[in-house]
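Structure representation:
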Amino acid sequence: MRSVRDFNLNNKKVIIRVDFNVPMKDNKILDDNRIVMSLNTINYAIAHNAKIILMSHLGRIQEEKDKKTNSLKTVSIRLSELLKKDVIFVDETRGKKLENAVNNLKPGEVLLMENTRFEDLPEKLESGNDESLGKYWASLGDIFINDAFGTCHRSHASNVGISKYLPNGIGFLVESELNNLNSILNSPKKPFALILGGAKVKDKIGVIENLISKCDYILIGGGMAYTFLNALGYNIGKSLLDEDSIDFCLNMLKQYKERIILPIDSVVSKELDGEVKTKLNDEFESDDIGLDIGLKTIENFKNILDKTNTVFWNGPLGYSEIDKYSTGTKEILEFLSNTNKTVIIGGGDTASCAINFGYKNSFTHISTGGGASLELLEGKKLPALEAIDK
């Protein structure tokens, strides 16, 4: 697959699809990791005298008021600080103002256009991969580089659409993601453990089915653990239950009993802000809610992980947004950070936990794409990568 380094960028208008879909509150960026991760490709294009046009979405645009809280203007200011140079921001997704700004770009200059999903009103032109929109955006540039791994599992006008009309390739971020995730798919150094958390089993069925034959262990925590425990006949009280996946869990437990590692104990409460207790699996009362793995489970997970050489982790092990239910996730992050294992964090909430809890630079790779990384590990084709010329 061609990359940005395979093109002569000199004096060319290079459209780079980046992923600046960062968490925001009150017009402030809460975590700029996705902006930082895009810098290698942008700086490479600057150094090679490209005229750079950046495109990204931010949030979901379902009604007009969403535009006020999802403008990329704030991102352009942060990007200017990180690049140590002015970034031209155009508050349009099409039109003369944008076209003139693009045509006036000088080599080495960077332009960021407004949120591509503003084109989702009144019709979903961006997320519906509207043909004419993709063709119009392509008309702004000479070369297209996709460096937004987090949207590679989507077929949008700003990735698949543009790819049809321009010479194209991938950026360094996407290249790094593919190298690291494909190493898990193709040649993980054994023993290999998969850590899965999060709410529902159904979100991870594809990953389990595709990787269980390659795994030595699958450690299961988070809300999804209680569906597995329910399948074994345990009373899980009012814990999360994915009823549609009970048969799947039972089948997996019958086939791979030795590989699937479930919690021994849980941190439970009657309600989120209630009194907290730690209980073994057979001690749950009918109104208990399991909200984190307990200390015995943490120690068991550490003992198993200690035997491994490669770890892939997707999904927090508890309701980690609340501090008193984040112990399991923090303890396993701390343990893995002090090893020399290959550890890949699979994007989404797990990546946020790793970064927010202070482990940003502690692992082999932290993916920028939760959904994209999961679909890749499920063995699915990613539309935005299929659209890139091989």
Observations:
- The mean pLDDT is 95.
